[in-house]
């Protein structure tokens, strides 16, 4: 089969098309013929090998898994002997790996073997490109938002970085449950954010939500461009703060440990500060997230936003676009 193969750490030039053996299908795996796969920040992390600490798990000199990509949508071509949820011809989407550490997952290929619990059925009226845009971003958004029952009791929610993959999903999920949503991003995305349901849109260049009037029951901070002490002042009495964090494709300058020290500090502080974290009693599994994303798509709650599509052979150009340009949605590879 044809696949994108990474020979070493570095820039997009490390990504090449090659003929490789078909994946081995385990007894609990589903072999998916890829129709679409998405690029996202975690792909960039493993392509570049940054922050450097990720190489302890992903591979010291080069990635242990040479084929990038974790978000996939496609058609079931083969099932393992213990697979009960899917059959040949089913249209599915999901993440290709169930991992808590940076890793490649083989999605940038014509075929990929995926554990059945990581997949969900693709609604018939959703394109493969739209479905492929959701898995990683959707898992991050759903697993870090408060429980739906808690969100439904909130009045005002702010999403900082609402125009990206994670932020746009969080915006739509929150808005569907009733709270008013203030969305912050660049001015060029204002109309898109209104179309996705934002009640108020602020340009991050012109507005600093930490100093302006307004108190929020939840600040869902995808960008992390303000210190927590400043964000805390913008919380209501019962407000909560959730940091996702984005290293801006290396522009944040944290080459060795990335955002890990910041998250460790916030985790320690959360033991004494009830405003930190989503308040969820348990973290969603990828199986639960995939199922929930399928439900939200079928119900029309989520409108996936696609910036651009590239053929598999143009993966280097797609990666450069992801890193260098301002996006209005997800960048998708089609196989």
- The tally of domains stands at 2
Average per-residue pLDDT, rounded, comes to 93
For the CA atoms, what is the radius of gyration?
19 Å
At the first level of CATH, the class of the largest domain is Alpha Beta
Largest sheet: 7 strands, mixed
Shape: globular
Count of helical regions:
11
Order of helices and strands: EEEHHEEEEHHHEHEHEEHEHHEHE
- Binned, the helix content reads 25-40%
Q: If classified by CATH, what would the architecture of the largest domain be? A: Alpha-Beta Complex
The end-to-end span amounts to 11 Å
Q: Show unreliable segments.
A: none
What does this structure look like?
- The strands form 3 sheets. Strands 3, 4, 5, 6, 7, 13 and 14 form a 7-stranded mixed sheet that branches.
- The N and C termini lie close together (11 Å).
- This protein folds into 2 domains: 2-135 and 304-334, Alpha-Beta Complex (Quinone Oxidoreductase, Chain A, domain 1); 146-276, 3-Layer(aba) Sandwich (Rossmann fold).
- The model has no long low-confidence stretch (mean pLDDT 93).
- The protein has 335 residues and is α/β, with parallel strands linked by helices.
- The relative contact order is 0.17.
- Helix content is 26%, strand content 25%.
- The longest helix is centred in the last third of the chain and has 13 residues, at 286-298.
- Helix 4 (135-144) crosses helix 6 and helix 4 (135-144) packs across helix 10.
- The radius of gyration is 19 Å and the shape is globular.
């Amino acid at each position: 089969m044809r696949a994108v193969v990474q020979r070493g750490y570095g820039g997009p030039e490390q990504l090449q098309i090659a003929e490789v053996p078909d994946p081995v299908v385990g007894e609990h795996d589903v072999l998916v013929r890829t129709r679409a796969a998405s690029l996202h920040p975690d792909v960039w992390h493993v392509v570049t090998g940054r922050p450097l600490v990720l190489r302890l798990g992903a591979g010291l000199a080069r990635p242990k898994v040479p084929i990038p990509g974790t978000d996939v949508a496609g058609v079931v071509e083969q099932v393992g002997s213990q697979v009960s949820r899917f059959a040949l011809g089913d249209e599915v989407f999901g993440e290709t790996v169930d991992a808590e550490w940076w890793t490649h997952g083989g999605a940038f290929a014509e075929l990929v073997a995926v554990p059945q619990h990581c997949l969900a059925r693709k609604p018939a009226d959703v394109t493969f490109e739209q479905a492929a845009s959701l898995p990683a971003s959707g898992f991050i958004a759903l697993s870090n938002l408060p429980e739906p029952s808690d969100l439904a009791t909130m009045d005002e929610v702010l999403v900082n970085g609402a125009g990206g993959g994670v932020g746009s999903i969080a915006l739509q999920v929150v808005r569907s449950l009733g709270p008013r949503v203030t969305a912050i991003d660049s001015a060029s995305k204002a109309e898109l954010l209104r179309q996705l349901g934002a009640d108020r849109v602020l340009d991050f260049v012109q507005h600093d939500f930490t100093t302006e009037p307004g108190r929020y029951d939840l600040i869902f901070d995808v960008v992390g461009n303000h210190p927590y002490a400043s964000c805390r002042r913008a919380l209501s009495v019962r407000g909560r703060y959730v940091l996702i964090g984005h290293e801006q494709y290396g522009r944040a300058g944290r080459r060795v440990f990335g955002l890990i020290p910041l998250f460790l500090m916030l985790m320690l502080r959360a033991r004494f500060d009830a405003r930190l974290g989503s308040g969820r009693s348990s973290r969603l599994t990828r199986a639960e997230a995939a199922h929930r994303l399928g439900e939200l798509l079928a119900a029309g709650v989520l409108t996936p936003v696609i910036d651009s599509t590239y053929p598999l052979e143009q993966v280097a150009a797609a990666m450069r676009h992801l890193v260098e340009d301002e996006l209005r949605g997800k960048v998708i590879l089609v196989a």
